[in-house]
Amino acid sequence: MSGDVCIVGIGIHRFGRTDGLSGVDQGVYAVREALADAGVEWPQVQFAYGSSDAAGNPDTMVDRLGLTGVQFINVRNGCAAGGSALFSAQMAIKSGEFDLGLAVGFDKHPRGAFNALPSEYNLPDWYGEVGQMVTTQFFAAKIMRYMSLFGISQKTLGMVSEKAFRNAVHAPHAWRRQPVSLEEILEAPLVSDPYTKYMFCSPAEGGVALILASEKKARELGKPLIRLKAATMRTRPPSSFEVFAPSVDVVEDDSRPRGTASRIASADAYRLAGIGPGDIDVAQLQDTEAGAELMHMAENGFCADGEQEQWLAEGRTEINGALPVNTDGGCLACGEPIGASGLRQVYENVVQLRGDGGGRQVPNAPKTAYSHVYGAPGVSAVTILER
Amino acid sequence: MTPIADGLFTEETPPRLIGGKDRETGRIVFPCPASPTFEAVPLSSEGTLWSYTVQRFRPKTPPYAGPEAFAPWVVAYVELPGQVIVEARLNDVAFEDVKVGMPVRFAPSPLNPDLLDSLYIPAYVPAGGAA
Fold first, then answer.
1. Which residues contact A340 (CB under 8 A, 6 or more apart)?
2. Is residue B62 part of a domain?
3. What are phi and psi of B55, to 5 degrees?
4. Domain containing residue A66
5. Which range marks the domain in which residue B51 is found?
6. In a domain, B87, yes or no
7. How close, in Å, is residue B115 to chain A by CA atoms?
8. Are the CB atoms for A27 and A13 separated by under 8 Å?
9. Sheet holding B28-29, edge to edge
10. pLDDT one-digit tens code per residue, A183-238
11. A interface toward B at CB cutoff 8 Å?
12. Mean pLDDT score of chain B
């Protein structure tokens, strides 16, 4: 295939809680919106990849969309599910097999923390019985270690959450759209130290759909070209620190952060796109908790470890900063429907590149946009868009 | 003292944790996998705190099998030098006194302190002068 894979249509069902609508309903809603945005009809769609973790098989939505016999493949890949669906969809076009397809993700989780069972992760039952099958413990312990190595303060964690809620005020698809003061964030009850309740995202609901096309097809449709310059999905390297780890390797030099799937996926994405972190105009980074955004700034090459304290103090990740991060409030304000979350980031990036961000629009017509997700048991997906 | 699972603690007094040493690479993991490629080895009783958090809400049941009554506890990652970093509880310390790098010692604790015959779970306490 010559040219790039392009995103020609986007759709989203509001994140948060929508009683009375199933996860699949929210996925279908997003697909219809994306089809309309692209100006195509469902029968023109040649293939689909769909991701959902807890809300049923995505391919069942052909009941609603039309029984056209379309190829429809379901993807489950932890928090990287949406990114994996998108990766697969772009490969289908790159291969030359198809020139118009769909990546869709949705989910609907019960209230409260994720309720994983040891057997699903190849762990012994006692690990859950003693109370260690809790994702928040890992995320808190990861930032606690990072804070001790690189001098990040709890106040800076609070500033990440404050920014998220402030940005989400202008994002119609976000869940929590009320600003929360830094003081209230820091003084809220601790959930898992050093994180207060405003510093963790919540499992949620929502749906996102993206219509992808070959460059030739995109030109025929007459759409502005939003090019998918890179989409990568990678797994963890040796000695990494991951969710649900009864033990972690001892390493010789433990004064630096360990290797992660994110570092690998990120380096690969930059290589494919032929650009570096300094060329990115806006970024959506996995922020399932406030410290994740900070650590992922470094893991994705945007700053050195320990520079985040200064970056936040200078407002560099604000909408009008040098590198706006999580312009729609990220997971902190949108919540996390696992199957949809990674695709929400790409949706937001397309909105920004088209200049449709309204009150949250990044100034000066951004040309490049970056997205990143991370999840259990050590998976990561990255995309780079260009217009 | 009955451990919450077989093969977790050695049978000596006081007990030590049992890890698994990869017969090929020498890498040590915890717990010891039920695989002939791993050899069960006793882990060091002393280590330092690698990282931690405080579990402030009662985990969901299942899988959590602790008492209904909930009191927050420290979730610790303890580095056993030259061996492995293990996840366990850290007891007998005020939350504000917990510091990365502090020395700790293995001391299993009951999952339900109100039961005389409670099962014991992997846990540490501050070692040396820190307690």
1. A15, A26, A27, A30, A51, A82, A105, A106, A107, A206, A207, A208
2. yes
3. -80, 110
4. 5-108
5. 45-126
6. yes
7. 15
8. yes
9. B28-29, B18-22, B38-42
10. 999 999 999 999 999 999 999 999 999 999 999 999 999 988 999 999 999 999 99
11. 112-113, 115, 117-118, 124-134, 136-137, 140-142, 144-145, 148, 189-194, 245-250, 254
12. 95
> Is residue A95 domain-resident?
yes
Q: Is any Cβ of chain A less than 8 angstroms from the Cβ of B63?
A: yes
In a domain, B108, yes or no: yes
Is the pTM here over 0.90, yes or no? Answer: yes
User: Residue B129: its pLDDT value, please?
Assistant: 59
**Nearest CB to A247: which of B54, B55, B87?**
B87
For residue A87, the domain's CATH number is: 3.40.47.10
ipTM of the complex: 0.96
C-alpha distance from A111 to closest chain B C-alpha (Å): 12
Does A120 map to a domain?
no
Kindly provide the b/e burial profile for residues A195-205, where b requires at least 16 CB atoms within 10 angstroms of the residue's own CB: bbebbbbbbbb
- The helix (H) or strand (E) run that includes residue A297 is helix A290-299
Percent of chain A residues topping a pLDDT of 90: 92
Domain count, chain B: 1
DSSP letter, residue A259: P
Structural domain tally of chain A? 1
Is A13 part of a structural domain of the chain? yes
B19 inside 8 A of chain A by CB: yes
Query: Is residue A75 domain-resident?
Result: yes
B84/A192 Cβ within 8 A: no
The predicted-structure confidence for A341-381, as pLDDT tens digits, reads as follows 999 999 999 999 999 999 999 999 999 999 999 988 889 99
Q: Is the pLDDT of residue A2 over 90?
A: no
Q: What is the 3-state secondary structure (H, E, C) of A324-340?
A: CECCCCHHHHHCECHHH
